[in-house]
Amino acid sequence: MQEEVTVRTKRAAVMNGQELSRVDAYWRAANYLSIGQIYLLDNPLLQEPLKPEHIKPRLLGHWGTTPGLNFIYVHLNRIIKARDLNVIYICGPGHGGPGMVANTYLEGTYSEIYPSIQQDLDGMRRLFKQFSFPGGIPSHAAPETPGSIHEGGELGYCLAHAYGAAFDNPHLIVACVVGDGEAETGPLAASWHCNTFLNPASDGAVLPILHLNGYKIATPTILGRMPDEELVGLFRGYGYKPFMVAGSEPTSMHQRMAAVVDEVTEDILSIQRQARNRAVGRNRFIAPFRRQASVDGVGQLVAGMAQ
Ligand SMILES: Cc1ncc(C[n+]2csc(CCOP(=O)(O)OP(=O)(O)O)c2C)c(N)n1
Ligand SMILES: [Mg+2]
Predict the structure, then answer these.
(1) What is the pTM for the complete model shown?
(2) I want to staple 242 with a disulfide (CB 3.0 to 4.6 A). Which of 57, 216, 227, 235 is the partner?
(3) What is the largest CA-CA distance in the chain?
């Protein structure tokens, strides 16, 4: 079954060496900026050996979900630049807030909105210190996070917000990362059906990305324990077309993710082109626009990085 699901994504490497190394460097920079926010009070570039006073006395934040979120972020940036797309990233695991902050800082948006936090050593020190700190910013994606329309503190609503953003917004692609634990909440479990109401002629697209890292904090997830065959059957039943990106080795993961994102984007645009060429009015029902990508195995990747 795995074979059948992934067969179309087994294309040759889609990125050349330079693009691959840039994507990977961006991902690693975002990871560094994320973990720095969680742990470091000072010494942001580790220019001197770490001392206890450089470390936050009270740590708050989830590292585990963040490398996966950053991985997805850089691959969405890649396709946005390659195809000049309008894409919004909705982050279900809101406690991955350091990742969202890190990426907006890397892009320069953070410094535009918060001029006291520039892309220099002082700015980085402030960026790290303020995270989950008195007088600073919350530990999860919050209204303060640039571009945020989804407050991630209470799990369960990201997919409903994603569809809400896509309705009547025909030029927007909404990438929505759903935690596998979050997927067990009632609101999220019901939200998969929102694809029924999406019209590819007049609405934008929603690309749900299931972050299947197997756990919700320390407890296994239902979807994480489900055999691939059942998982794929479940999402096909909901009307999605699942893709798997699984592995623990960054280079091959980047190539596979790039191939899947290319293919999913091509599918989205071609469904929209066909629907729009048919000039179907809002009052006539046409096949809902349904796509599902799944990121599997980033959990193993995270474990590797953490060690
Ligand atoms: C409704 C709700 N219940 C419980 C929590 C506490 N909580 C925060 S993160 C988390 C685990 C989330 O797991 P998952 O969605 O799989 O995200 P991951 O960190 O694994 O990417 C829980 C239970 C919450 N924030 N909201
Ligand atoms: Mg999880």
Answers:
(1) 0.90
(2) 235
(3) 66
